[in-house]
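TASK: fixed-backbone design
INPUT:
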């Protein structure tokens, strides 16, 4: 029998779900000085590793949070170091001529587009690294969201713990990071739009000494197809533990988990111990909206993609990155509530694009069961610098400047650096040679103005605007000392030596003026831009 409701508690932001999206959102809000409470229905983290690809953009967010080094050190291998894909009938046949080993995607750092690189780090390891950074008492496990009600000033959430104790929590905003079966999504009246191929799967975690079978063909992911069993093998953070995800094709033989593992290894003499297993359904879907009133969705609550896209964890982290600074700006009185409407306007098109890509390639390859299509389609679909670093917003918290967006031959795979409003501000090395950092390091918890070497009037305007509006704008005049940054930075950013760009805390360009302006012109131009971006009236 449930206990009586306890007295209400108050918190600015309530987060449901302590996966990567929820943990990152809480940590980002903490950096912005906004307290939050995260509730997680699971009493403890799950035993089965899930997503592993941590892409370049997510590593940039982790770098900003100070955890990129830990994630890199715990990773199985950097993708740009060439950790390969492999395709074979069984592990025992991996060294035969018809097996295929394909070098993995080169992204970000090697191409000079980022100070970090994509890594392969199991999601359970990433979550543990993030949890260690969460202040005490900010995450409560074994607590589920049982309902919520919105009104004109906030949200009242009903929480229930494992003992049936009910608690009312009052918050200004609620964010659902609670996965594919999101309670927040249901409570907000939102839904995932169905469509695209669906595959049933069985995910198995097991112990076995597989190192000798792999030999010099150790791979980040091995696709196997033997005896009616189709799926993929992946290493975990422990050298003796592996996961095999079986795709349950219609008509495939029903086999015990241990028999499945033996079938794809191709050996009966390797001891196998199954530790855990679960059935799950892979699909590609996006929510009809990512916000409703004072409620928001992020991560799998807002969109689902198949594991082969390598996007699931990353989309959720980047949702949080987009939302955190907006919540903080509104809660701190620096922006109007209209700023929060830009979250759906910006992030939903990104999610829908990833879902379309997933349906067009990866999911379709899995649904057909065609071995040849697997071998061609899956590695090709992993090369997507354009999707990762070229992510951009066409409307939202930005001031368009009328310039066309870059149009490379393949916008999915090719990234063209640009400081066009709505795009990620490009990386460039910054600082003296002995302590070289990144231009991205200048983007902190406030708006940042970058002016060319003759852009002093813009910096002066930023200082005066900060004092007048109570909105800090950190201003930098760059290019006067070529030992700190290449003088060509202005050309990359699309401005003259007297121009300027305004960058948001999430690293996306909010506004750009390529021209030098006298002080009396610069001030009102920048004032209008900041007011527009932050939805400030008057």
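OUTPUT:
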């Amino acid at each position: 029998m449930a206990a009586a409701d306890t007295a209400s508690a108050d918190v600015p932001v309530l987060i449901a779900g302590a996966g990567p999206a929820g943990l990152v959102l809480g940590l980002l809000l903490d950096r912005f000085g906004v307290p939050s409470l995260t509730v997680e229905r699971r009493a403890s983290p799950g035993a089965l590793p899930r997503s592993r690809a941590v892409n370049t953009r997510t590593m940039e967010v982790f770098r900003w949070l100070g955890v990129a080094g830990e994630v890199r050190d715990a990773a199985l291998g950097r993708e740009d170091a060439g950790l390969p894909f492999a395709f074979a009938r069984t592990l025992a046949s991996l060294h035969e001529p018809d097996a295929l080993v394909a070098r993995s995607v080169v992204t970000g750092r090697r191409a000079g587009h980022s100070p970090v690189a994509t890594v392969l780090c199991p999601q359970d390891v990433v979550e543990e690294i993030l949890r260690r950074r969460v202040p005490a008492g900010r995450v409560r496990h074994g607590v589920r969201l049982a309902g919520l009600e919105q009104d004109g000033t906030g949200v009242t959430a009903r929480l229930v713990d494992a003992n049936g104790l009910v608690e009312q929590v009052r918050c200004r905003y609620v964010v659902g990071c609670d996965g594919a079966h999101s309670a927040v999504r249901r409570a907000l009246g939102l839904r995932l739009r169905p469509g695209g191929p669906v595959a049933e799967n069985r995910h198995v975690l097991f112990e076995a000494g597989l190192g000798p079978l792999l030999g010099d063909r150790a791979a980040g992911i091995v696709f196997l197809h033997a005896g009616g069993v189709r799926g993929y093998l992946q290493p975990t953070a422990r050298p003796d533990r592996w996961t095999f995800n079986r795709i349950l094709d219609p008509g495939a033989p029903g086999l015990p988990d241990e028999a499945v593992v033996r079938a794809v290894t191709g050996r009966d003499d390797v001891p196998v111990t199954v530790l855990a297993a679960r059935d799950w359904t892979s699909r590609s879907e996006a929510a009809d909206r990512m916000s409703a009133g004072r409620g928001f969705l992020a991560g799998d609550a807002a969109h689902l993609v198949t594991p082969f896209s390598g996007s699931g964890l990353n989309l959720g982290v980047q949702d949080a990155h987009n939302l955190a600074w907006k919540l903080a700006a509104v809660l701190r009185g620096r922006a109007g509530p209209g700023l929060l409407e830009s979250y759906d306007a910006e992030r939903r098109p990104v999610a829908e694009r990833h879902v379309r890509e997933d349906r067009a390639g990866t999911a379709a390859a899995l649904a057909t069961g065609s071995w040849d299509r697997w071998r061609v389609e899956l590695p090709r679909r992993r090369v997507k610098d354009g999707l990762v670093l070229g992510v951009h917003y066409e409307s939202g918290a930005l001031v368009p400047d009328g310039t066309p967006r870059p149009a490379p031959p393949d916008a999915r795979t090719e990234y063209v650096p640009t400081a066009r409003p709505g795009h990620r501000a490009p990386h460039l090395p910054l600082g003296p040679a002995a302590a070289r950092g990144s231009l991205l390091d200048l983007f902190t918890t406030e708006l940042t103005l970058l002016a060319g070497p003759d852009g002093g009037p813009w910096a002066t305007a930023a200082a005066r605007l900060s004092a007048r509006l109570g909105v800090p704008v950190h201003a930098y005049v760059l290019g006067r000392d070529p030992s700190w940054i290449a003088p060509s930075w202005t050309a990359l950013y699309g401005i003259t030596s007297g121009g300027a760009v305004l960058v948001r805390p999430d690293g996306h360009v909010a506004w750009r003026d390529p021209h030098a302006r006298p002080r009396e012109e610069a001030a009102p131009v920048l004032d209008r831009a900041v007011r527009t971006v932050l939805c400030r009236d008057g």
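COMMENT: The chain has three domains: 6-75+121-192+288-360, 78-117+199-282, 429-534.
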